[in-house]
Amino acid sequence: MLSAVMSQITLAHEPLDLPLASVWRISRGARTHAYNVLVRLNWTDAHGTTWEGLGEAAPYAYYGELRGTVEAALDAFAPLLGDDPFAINSIMDRLEARVRHNTGAKAAIDMALHDLVGKLLGQPTWRLWGLDPAGGPETSYSIGIDTPSTMAAKAREFADAGWPLLKLKVGTPDDAACVRAVRDAAPHARLVIDANGAWSATEAVARLRQLAPFGIEFVEQPCASENVAGLRFVREQTGLTVIADESCASEEDIPALADAVDGINIKVMKCGGLRRARRMVEVARAHHLKVMCGCLIESSLSLSAAAQLLPLLDFADLDGNLLLKHDPFRGVTVDRGRLGIPTGPGLGVVAVNEQPRP
Amino acid sequence: MLSAVMSQITLAHEPLDLPLASVWRISRGARTHAYNVLVRLNWTDAHGTTWEGLGEAAPYAYYGELRGTVEAALDAFAPLLGDDPFAINSIMDRLEARVRHNTGAKAAIDMALHDLVGKLLGQPTWRLWGLDPAGGPETSYSIGIDTPSTMAAKAREFADAGWPLLKLKVGTPDDAACVRAVRDAAPHARLVIDANGAWSATEAVARLRQLAPFGIEFVEQPCASENVAGLRFVREQTGLTVIADESCASEEDIPALADAVDGINIKVMKCGGLRRARRMVEVARAHHLKVMCGCLIESSLSLSAAAQLLPLLDFADLDGNLLLKHDPFRGVTVDRGRLGIPTGPGLGVVAVNEQPRP
Fold this sequence. Notes:
- Two copies of one chain form a homodimer.
- Chain A is of the alpha/beta class.
- Chain A has two domains: 10-122, Enolase-like, N-terminal domain (Enolase-like, domain 1); 128-351, TIM Barrel (Alpha-Beta Barrel), CATH 3.20.20.
- Helices cover 34% and strands 23% of the residues of chain A.
- In chain A, the strands form four sheets. Chain A has an eight-stranded parallel β-sheet with strand order 4-5-6-7-8-9-10-11. In chain A, strands 1-2-3 form a three-stranded antiparallel β-sheet. In chain A, strands 12-15 form a two-stranded antiparallel sheet.
- In chain A, strand 7, helix 8 and strand 8 form a beta-alpha-beta unit.
- Chains A and B meet through helix 2, helix 3 and helix 11 of A and helix 2, helix 3 and helix 11 of B.
């Protein structure tokens, strides 16, 4: 049995610059880099052994975060961590009480605590949650907004390589041409589309009537986040499966969405960590909603945190690390869409000094 | 790190006869014994060490269980346990898929698995859940239906001993006399009442208007379980805090109750174990409901399972072991309502060979 708690948990953070392999474009804009933040939590046990838990924040302006706000929030959180890494629930309650939002900073600490506890117990996080690592859905591969021919080329490349599920970012006047080109290039792939809230409800219905004939498994966030009635309208009018992403930041958003959509997209960076991600799963299930887990542009560190949820999911979109020029961590694996849940203690992540991909 | 999984989990069960110190009466009837079932799960690790997890089922006819049905369900569940005690979620999914209801039998296995995993890791279950054992509400002491003078004597005894919160079972024509007598006997105690669904909605409003002047903190289940509209009506008409118990067996019942009541009463035996009890907490919180945890007539074994939830609760009614003539287990403690969460590994329970109370 581990001895009584002895030392304070200490926090250090450093920039984690992640250049992308190519420009990434969605309906809200384009990016060439992710300016993430790496968090290290350290704690010394009664035997004098120091343990480290790692976390990552992916600041995202849409959720109100920049690298600087993440760093400032982490500095404010550092004195609140206490001396017991097992007490994740009360630690995270203290951070929530300190400041609202700042979910990426909170997520980084939450996942570092899970990593630390898993290492202390010598068990993967998913195992401490009682989950069976077998099964779980395949991840989609996401294709950003681009010309029809570029999107089609990307779709062909991944479909031919054996990826079963492609997620297309939409939300421009060229959507029909893009989706048609992708369908022609990948006739057997399962396709989903994500408008990131680009459309009004009536626009969405018109666009989706154009796109549905190309075979769409579901549509993510057709209307703006606050337009729950719009989501309901789209679902009723098109009969398509509708997944809420931007509309559903935390478990408290779920009851109001339950009769408007078919499922929710959870992101660890959006809800503030694994603790709340698991809450979202439970609340969604109680409302008979499908559960998806997505990501931002992240390294394998925070994607390995999200991957702990895999056995609980219907859909996964955990491919943010595939956009990177090089990934400074190794953890969750992916083989033509099939995710390999990490098997090491905690989040199962190790730092690597990979060469950039050629 | 624990080695790879080696052996099947085996299950044994035996009768756990629990005579009561005195007759226990609620609006549905009276009992002198609880005929519970003790479950032992055994699992041998790669080093040849055999570990045991303990669970308890409290069969309750209202929830569709008798000792014989619990035993039959346990026998059906035994071959489904697999070889990995950590995989609680998929094990419990298999039991749920095998047969509906039978929540006491499922609860016994669920808690034995939690006990086993906690022992394997040398940690209390609440610690593996990330909870802080400090705080948590006091438990009420429950007084069964009896004559006004007997109920008053019991109330005086416990209030004078320092118990802050008394829960009165009601649902007979004598309710007003009983509650008046209790209030006179214990003028400073906080009182809550539980009708166990005895009243129609209009009856409930009339009765509660009689009882409210005696100072009632909340009322539990004034109307029948299926009468959600009745619960809403009682809440609107009386302004009292209404807690759903029989109306709320699992997390899936919560969305429909969310605008009808102020909170829910979770019971491990009602929902089928700690896994689902925790789900109920999360779903209730997402709906801004108060969370209470109650019990049936149970030994300290299954009450210690429920006590793991303590830091998550607003109200506790974990006193079922206090009704027993003797308690074959020792775990959760209680001192004038203040619960002591067990600190040992797993559920923190040990068997005792106590003499019956004189």
